[in-house]
């Protein structure tokens, strides 16, 4: 039907219309040669037929028409995504660990035994007694504060009756003497809290797991005791010597001193997921019990997961390292550290999520505790200093509020104050690891003190404008902390335990 006429400038297309007639349509040769059906054509596409001719391809397309850079080049303006490499690393990591699982099963079989246990009845009894008695030290601190608060109220009352300078001076002297006695009893109470627990755990509780739980509980209560005493001391000073410098945050106005010295207020602080005492905290409006159930479910599942990894994978690796450490076979020790690093890293990450994300959030929900920033993105830390400020926020806030800031306020340099913070933290870490394992060998202590030179090395990297500095700092953090530090510490404490007892069940 179609018989197009070809011209040098135009082409003619014969089209059959809906009424059977023919029409000629001319079109410029430069116009697009596409069949665009009319509405009538769409109604009956079988009627219209067109003949088109494709233009001949010309090998002159300008593919190189602008300045461009390779994706991995620094000169490239666009941000390159490494999602594919991330997926590859995850696949390789899964494959490598799956190989370790198969190798472990072929060597040892199933080592997990639910009915087997290696704790003694004495460990359980003493641990339960310590868990019941340790919180009593907080309530002893309440009694001390109650006595001092009454003395402070009497001082304020006498000042209102007699506003003379002599009476004011006398009141200040009485208050200072009272505070000296209170400081002594607070120190004695907090020290006994930690010392008695440490003594019982070190000499009478053999199982390291039960001992660690008791020691963690005692350290937490000790820190809360210190915060309770320091904070209320400053509240009293603000009440007795009101000035612009002693002004308190507005959030405390709903519960001013000494109205905060109550059993209910102290009980909330005891159970709240914080180490920093405040009379008032931000509170959520209600409790979401479904949220609590999910977080507790996560905690339980991760606790079982960590137990399985420890029993099936970590324990054989540690036991196989004893002979190598005894003869100081450096190459074999390094190989064991590298092998243990994967297991310890997985256990540590699972423990982090179980504690800071699951358990503390569940506790915060029950207590309607509003400030739930228990950690920030510590995994992106480009320096060790950033890590310690991000990883365990409750401890960091305690150290900043009650150690670092007061020392700086007294004229200490930032470095000296930081050194004192890490010294206190090092002592607590050594107590937390060395006392339950009955081996105070100083590895945890010196490991914490070694953070100071690492901070000095990585801080300049963090401040570099070049992103490479932050990448190097983050790599130093992961290698020093998770690839070398934790596995090596675990090996040394396990070796000391084996040298002393031979196994967990022997005592």
TrEMBL record:
Keywords: Acyltransferase, Endoplasmic reticulum, Membrane, Transferase, Transmembrane, Transmembrane helix. Its main location: endoplasmic reticulum. Residues 19-32 have a biased composition (Polar residues). Residues 1-55 are annotated as: Disordered. Pfam families: MBOAT. InterPro entries: MBOAT_fam, Oat_ACAT_DAG_ARE. GO terms for cellular component: endoplasmic reticulum membrane. It is a multi-pass membrane protein. Residues 9-18 have a biased composition (Low complexity). The active site is at 429. It is found in: Endoplasmic reticulum membrane. It comes from the Eukaryota. Pathway: Lipid metabolism. The keyword Transmembrane applies. The chain crosses the membrane at residues 83-102, 123-144, 183-205, 345-364, 407-428, 440-459, 471-496. GO terms for biological process: triglyceride biosynthetic process. GO terms for molecular function: diacylglycerol O-acyltransferase activity. The keyword Acyltransferase applies. Sterol O-acyltransferase that catalyzes the formation of stery esters. PANTHER family: DIACYLGLYCEROL O-ACYLTRANSFERASE 1, STEROL O-ACYLTRANSFERASE. Belongs to the membrane-bound acyltransferase family. Sterol o-acyltransferase subfamily. This is O-acyltransferase.
